[in-house]
Amino acid sequence: MDIFLQACVNGLLMGGFYSLMGMGQNVIFGVMKIVNFCHGEMLMVGMYLTYMLNQVFGMDPYLCVPFVAIIMFGLGALIQHTLITPSLGTKSFTNLLFLTVGLGLLLSNGALVIFGSAYRTIPTSYARTNISLGMVNIPLPRLISFLVLIVISIALFIFLKKSTTGKQIRAVSQNPVGAEVVGINTKKIYVLTYGIGTALAGIAGSLLTGFYTIYPTAGASFGFRALIVVVVGGLGSIPGAFFAGIFLGLLETMVALFVSPSYSDLIVFVTFIVILVVRQLIILRRK
Hints:
mainly alpha; two-stranded antiparallel sheet; 2 strands
């Protein structure tokens, strides 16, 4: 029982990162209807930014989070304004697909050239600190990261539901032409949305550095899992992405516990395919 409870806690803590990645992907897709295939590489950039801030200024990884969020928001806004927006005018999904895939390859290979292929970590005084709750031990870095993720998720939900800018983002996601008719600057909303999605990925990467190794391809698996979260949780649904991420984290740990860690990815991908097929059958039956 204690092993089972520990696996549940580990899955819950890791699922929080999948949730944050999925929410960032969902914000972008919900507004612009594009799949951002370089989302995982944005997480990797956030990890290296945190590493650089730690090495240059000696900052704690968690104190780096606000600075990484601001830098990543600016990077995302710049990419959207200079690359994504012109491609949106072509109305071609293929152009956007190759653009985001190319951006991902550029970022990962750029990190490889600059930092090399060596695995890096950020040592902290509390890295090996555990909090005991009965039969369960919770690593302090993972707990802090998860709590920060919860706060960010709630703040994002409130921002989209209550703020004027959040309502404009939801209006553009529902009907871009109608939003322009009532005076909403859709291009500005696109830039803001892509910046927010990129910032969320950067925050996830920054929070991971407390207990995860840093290397150029670190974001690949997280990027693919973000796509799974988006599909499972519902396209454009922030609460759906949150709970889908938690479900994915729990699924991975349960497979590792009851089957084998080497089959975790296989089971996750098979589950993803089954959900896609079932959802398509439901849509066809409704039609």
